[in-house]
Design a protein that fits this description.
Largest sheet: 12 strands, mixed
Bound molecules: S-adenosylmethionine, iron/sulfur cluster
Structural class: alpha/beta
Helix content: 25-40%
CATH topology: TIM Barrel
Radius of gyration: 19 Å
Strand order of the largest sheet: 7-8-9-6-5-4-3-2-1-10-11-12
Shape: globular
Strand content: 15-25%
Order of helices and strands: EHEHEHEHHEHEHHEEEEEEHHH
Number of domains: 1
Distance between the termini: 29 Å
């Protein structure tokens, strides 16, 4: 069986699956407050259809999966899907990205179903600011979710923090302190120009160099850390003596396309070989036909660009492809 290798020699062994485009929050950088149109439920892949796609790509070398959304925990009994996918031959690792609002009561079930890793999104440690960024989220529920997954002994637990100028860039030191107190990998992420048809993201975009300045102002030293579980683009650091670590993900200022090993599947069944570009191929009509699914993945991979050119959006240069019209909640991040 053909492996998922593109024309630049990149081996693809990782697929991110958006299980729903719906969400219980409305983060300012991800969804509009009102008027978001969701796919009707009959256009969303069923668990059996997702399993069929995973079985087909596992035979082509996909080993790692991430379930995302929208908010994956709003999909009913997501643990059933996790159990189905962890039974697929070849799948070694299943991760989940969540806003953690529904996490506390799910932590044990997710663990038992075979979830191996977790990413939690949290952009502020201040209750009123968190509520403003998420348009109504309750930070106490997120904190209880974090404690529940620490108790359930998930390793690693990553905390995604999208850094935004004038919104949460005064909290870098608080997040660094949190990474010292709890066994969390705090990952600062650059604000990406995804799903923005205006230039408003540019005003909030901030380069991640500010993180090191903030740590140095705290009088702390840090050392580079090699991650046993790392398969992504994060640069990671540890403050000596801290329980956790911190990392930087800079898709805009320094893209990580050279080592990109990921494919994306949207909730309505489209293969996206690149997060940023608009091109996609819908696999849903092929469910059940392994060969046809595999052929479509190879076609999609053949069209994968060498890099996403997000930095060109920052400098207003013209780009070679059309940026995606989908919002991040429809792609899954
Ligand atoms: N609802 C889940 C959550 O928030 O963790 C999973 C889906 S969410 C789309 C996945 C990740 O994308 C989150 O960590 C979120 O912060 C990030 N994200 C969304 N829009 C973004 C943007 N414009 N720039 C950078 N990250 C973004
Ligand atoms: Fe929902 Fe996640 Fe988007 Fe926030 S970032 S609106 S939690 S999908």
């Amino acid at each position: 069986m053909n492996k998922l290798v593109d024309k630049f020699g990149r081996i693809h062994d990782y697929m991110r699956i958006s299980v729903t485009d719906r969400c219980n929050l409305r983060c300012v950088y991800c969804m509009p407050e009102e008027g978001m149109e969701f796919e009707p439920s009959d256009r969303i892949l069923s668990y059996e259809e997702i399993e069929a796609v995973v079985k087909a790509v596992a035979k082509m070398g996909v080993r790692k999966l991430r379930l995302t959304g929208g908010e994956p925990l709003v999909r009913r009994e997501i643990e059933k899907l996790i159990a189905m996918l962890s039974a697929v031959p070849g799948i070694e690792d299943i991760a989940l990205t969540t806003n953690a609002i529904f996490l506390e009561s799910k932590a044990e079930k997710l663990r038992e179903a075979g979830l191996t890793r977790l990413n939690i999104s949290l952009d502020s440690l201040k209750a009123d600011r968190f509520s403003m960024i998420t348009r109504g989220g309750d930070i106490k529920r997120v904190m209880r979710g974090i404690d529940a997954v620490v108790r359930a002994a998930f390793t690693p637990i990553k905390l995604n923090v999208v850094l935004m100028k004038g919104i949460n860039d005064d909290e870098i030191q608080d997040f660094i302190r949190l990474s010292m107190e709890k066994p969390l990998q705090v990952r600062f992420i650059e604000y990406m120009p995804i799903g923005h048809d205006d230039n408003s993201w540019r005003e909030k975009y901030i380069s991640l160099d500010t993180i090191f300045e903030a740590v140095e102002k705290m009088g702390l030293s840090y050392e580079s850390e090699v991650l046993v579980y790392g398969n992504g683009p994060a640069e990671n650091y540890r403050i000596p003596g801290g329980a956790g670590s911190f990392g930087l993900i800079h898709p805009v200022s320094e893209h990580f396309c050279d080592t990109c090993n990921r494919l994306r599947l949207t909730a309505d069944g489209s293969i996206k070989p690149c997060l940023y570009w608009n091109d996609e191929w819908n696999v849903r009509p092929l469910a059940g036909d392994d060969r046809a699914i595999q052929a479509l993945f190879l076609r999609a991979l053949d069209a994968k660009p060498e890099n996403h050119e997000m930095a060109m959006a920052l400098s207003r240069e013209s780009q070679t492809h059309t940026p995606t019209v989908r919002r991040m909640s429809q792609i899954g991040g």
